[in-house]
């Protein structure tokens, strides 16, 4: 019976649905900018968008508890101190008909990480300016950085229900392995020059990214919920595979203004450890190199603002802002702990 209902929803023309449908009009018609694939489009409609995201991390966490740098240094030769990630995400959406919207999104990433590193890991064995508490290991702080294209997503958003100011659509995505998994730092000795798993730009695997989105509107509020998942389908060229990921977003935006809409979002994520291992990474050197220390769970809360130009030459343009940070975080650590995330975006539909 459940499968019959899904088939009927797919083949029933949308014109038979209630005329009081969910509407994307106004600044509350879109989710907070950190939610991707939240809405579909009318037949023949295009949307161009750009989202910038910055994430900042510092300190170490194992489970829900903090781990000091000195504690981690007792077990490793290189320990992460802080990390920043900048993500530039251009994407395009097009609706060939009223039921299906196609989306393609690329991602340019810039990673920067500061580490405490034993001098012996430096090519040429650079001279250290600090010693550990036992006086037998010299070290210094060093910054790693890299940039490049990450993985690409192509997806179809398929509407199942559109009536009574509610909308349900499927998010059917495929991840393309366009990001590098072999980034290295040639300032380090050759056998330890490969950067750890968190610093690699991509997964190197083909990915299935299924999900579903529910949207609901009242006279005062536009709200929604979305569940997404990522399944890596193969080991990459270096013999490893990122863990399965699950993500849930719930949000609410206030309606009533043609120009601005404030809102809230809660995001919960779980990601698994790496399976397999990169033979170029020695897990005894850094926790970033250990495939069993890459998973975790985190819940973040965000404040959001959506702006829209209602008329004139710039009609159809939207600008959005979002700022948030973790409420709960548990990591298979020691791992870098999350501090905050900011999202800024622009959208234009026509």
Written overview of the protein:
The chain has one domain: monomeric porin ompg (Porin, Beta Barrel), CATH 2.40.160.40. It is elongated and about 70 Å long. It is built from two helices and 17 strands. The protein has helices at residues 2-11, 69-73, and strands spanning 46-63, 65-67, 78-94, 100-105, 108-118, 130-131, 138-149, 152-163, 166-176, 207-217, 221-232, 240-241, 245-254, 260-271, 275-276, 296-308, 317-349. The chain is mainly beta.
Q: Please report the first level of CATH classification, the CATH class.
A: Mainly Beta
Main sheet record:
11 strands, antiparallel, barrel
Average residue-wise pLDDT: 91
Question: Shape from CA axes?
Answer: elongated
Integer count of domains: 1
> In DSSP terms, counting alpha (H) and pi (I) runs of 4 or more, how many helices?
2
Which range does the strand content fall in?
over 45%
The share of residues in helices is: under 10%
**The CATH topology, please?**
Porin
Under the CATH scheme, which architecture would be assigned?
A: Beta Barrel
Structure class: mainly beta
Which stretches are poorly predicted, pLDDT < 50 over at least 5 residues? 1-18
CATH superfamily: monomeric porin ompg
Q: Span between N and C termini? A: 39 Å
Report Rg: 23 Å
Element order, helices and strands? HEEHEEEEEEEEEEEEEEE
> What's the number of extended β-strand segments?
17
Largest sheet strand order = 1-3-4-8-9-10-11-13-14-16-17
